[in-house]
Amino acid sequence: MTQDPITLYRSMLVIRECEAQLNELFAKNLFPGYIHSYLGQEACAVGICSGLNDTDYIVSNHRGRGHYLAKGMALKPMMAEMLGKATGICGGRGGEMHAADPALGILGGNGIVGAGMPIGAGAALAAQMDGLGAVAVVFFGEGASNNGAFGETLNVAAAWNLPLIMVCENNLYAEMTPFAQTVGQPDVAARATGYGVASEIVDGNDVLAVRAAAGRAVERARAGEGPTLLELKTYRWGGHFEGDPRKYRTREEEAEWKARCPVARYRRHLVALGVEADRLGSLEAAVAAEVAEAVTFALDSPLPPPESALLKVFA
Amino acid sequence: MPTKTYCWAIIDAMREEMARDDKVFLMGEDVAAAGGAFGASRGLLDAFGPIRVRDTPISEEIIVGMGVGAAMAGRRPIVEIMFIDFLGLCLDQIANQAAKSHYIYDGMFKMPLVIRTSSAVEMGIGPHHSQAWEALVGHIPGLKVVMPSTPRDAKGLLKSAIRDDNPVIFIEHIAMHRIKEEIEDDEDFLIPIGKADVKRAGSDVSVVASGLMVARALAAAERLAGDGISVEVIDPRTISPLDFDTISASVSKTSRCLVVSSSHKNFGFGSEVAAEIGERCFFDLDQPVRRLSPPFTPAPFGRQFDQFLNPDTDAIVAAVRDLMA
After folding, report:
1. Is a pLDDT exceeding 60 seen at residue A272?
2. Is the entire prediction scored with pTM above 0.95?
3. What is the domain extent for residue B302?
4. Helix H segments across A141-261?
């Protein structure tokens, strides 16, 4: 999927606006449940998904809105799903941690850290059996790399040469614990070597660097050259969830990372390329309005009736 | 009709379904080159090749999890977890992923996944290879749990499981692998999931027996017939969803019910049957529903312990006589 520079920027803006407007809803007590904010990580999802086709699979996690949107999920049904509304893409049954769209290869999110990795390997296996060159991408946080499923997945992906791209968004905090406190080796990518999996460490706040690395990994996978682990070094602007008091890190550290904002950084790049500020300004206003319209749609939509809880236990 | 062992009935079911639908494939520990730890996939590698019959690493979470992902991507995986005691290693993928994906995603994904696993209750292999965990998985909505007690049931139920669009835990018992039975020579021979089988008709007592206990219940029924006690033996065949209609119709007729199971009494299969019968048939009952199960303890290594812990034919005979007293 070739994407022009403006489309890449727009993709990041949509995610940024969604996260900002959902946080506002949460602050007004209009959001049910937890928000696991994707603010600050926009370049990761957009850089990876900009190189994928609709026939490629992604498996997301609990912090999934960026992934869903970057892979092309329609904004209104996505937003309504986050609020658990009947107009949501899963009829409101999945909520904030679970959305899917089989037509776009989006195989869902997850409420269990690490559980998506084996599922992604299974999708990669199916793609390999199909022989049509599709790949599977698993998004996970660095915290999930301490789960047993991580090792099991890397091992089988290497053994079976699966077209799997393991995308670790290393945002430095495993829920509410600094990742560095939980490991003897802070580079997740370094672990790939022991399993015979190719890996790269990438600046996760540089959408073009992420896009380039994803392109190399996808090309390897499509060519039958097996899995790749990409470790994207980034930062989670919010807490593990909104309302998390973030006692485990300093406000100064947060300010330093916000100064490395991936959206602003790419905007500067576009301006340097000669894109007029006016054009970017009107794009930003249009995206804000589009997201606001989706939020209104979600807020105005009905909840699914309680008795629908009894439906669809079995196919 | 050809006579087949339980083990070959399982192999035949997989071979026929893999030939019928090229989306079906098999993966698990030692299932390909070795033909299965217990021989239950012999010949399948030669018949279908290494893409569709795959030896996995000893990574249970991956085995089930890849099955989930492959099913979401349009395949119909059969995965094997060698012993049911190993389910702890992959319970998240079973209970949270396989069981719930159709539900969470509003029916957008089907989950045609069969998880074949084996019980070795009473085979003296020790506490990590001797458990009856059907109740553990029976507790989870979204899963079907099947536990056949004869070769014919095994074949017909496994074929139904492979054709089912829901996740099915298919529990085999290794000690039954060599028992033989005539089976219809028909590639569309199916036994429906969720339907109990009256293995012996009777009028005085209903004995609901599962898995290894079915043969013992039938032996007990034969002995008791000599004393003029007519025992109806019901094999649920499917643990979940359990066919309470067949069971309660029998109990309403006989007014007495004994449940015999290898699963522990506490929160177990027998408790579930007894409670439901209590609700459905209270005014038909002449006696409280009785349960025969192993005591609430792990099983040490050695068959003498297994024989001591598990219900045998004598115990079933005694319990039925007690119900008739």
Report:
1. yes
2. yes
3. 197-324
4. 148-159, 188-195, 207-222, 251-258
